[in-house]
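Schema walk-through. Below, the input block comes first and the output block second. Nothing else is stored per chain. Lengths vary across the set, and this one has 295 residues.
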Amino acid sequence: MKDQLCKALVLENRVRLYLVKTTDMVQEARNRFDLHPCACAALGRSLSVASLMGSMLKSEEEMLTISINGHGPIGSIIIDAYHDGNVRGFCSNPHVEDVFYGPGKLNVGAVVGTNGTLTVTKDLGMGENFSGSVELQSGEIGEDFAYYFTLSEQTPTAVSVGVLIGQDGNVVSAGALIIQMLPDATETDISICEHVLEGLKPMSTIIQEYDDSSLEELAHDLFEDANVLETKEVKYSCPCSKQRMSRALSTISDAEIKNMIDVDHGCEVTCNFCNERYTFDEFDLQEILEMKHAS
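--- output ---
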């Protein structure tokens, strides 16, 4: 099964269910940044939840940026998420030293830290952005996002997210689940959801088990009356380009650009979000200078 995202309403449309498989997405992040296992798990969990959060946006013009900084050794995690569920993101220290709870069980909270915040900034295309921030609870990502939804967006929410890393450092499986109570949810609905969550296997295990199936099938197995609204493919996607990098270079001073031409004979620009490198030779830089002063 390719990476995909599924939205559904359950329990007679009183509860929202979001599911996403992100194995390929997280593997691409791992490849792009040479992520070590703990960094891969931390960034991968964040990308997975961000994909679901992006899909909650109402229009193509909207996007959100997630910033997680618990002042742990991984540094900051920054992610952009889009309306279609596609995401891009990075962490400050992709080679952070691994910490384990026990044999083979990564301690993500130890590298993320808890002395900091999770901040979500939404660009709704209205000039002024909406921003909500909460204190990190565990640094394990899932619990922190659940706390954000409940406190900042006043929506009772359960989050399950997981990334399984193989012994070779590659991503075996990754995905996330979000369950949200709608205003008309009953106490019985809450009890049913709690029962489902109590019996839930680790999310990475579930994604493995449903690798040959669809997320729609998983939705129906979790809730018999699941009303699937949408299923679509998602991916790691960065809109950077040489043209965009040219515009960024045009914002620096003429003197700096001339120095790059005369001394360095060109430059290389790297995108923070996807690690793509763009090379500009002397002719490219001279063209940028001329475009700056074209009337």
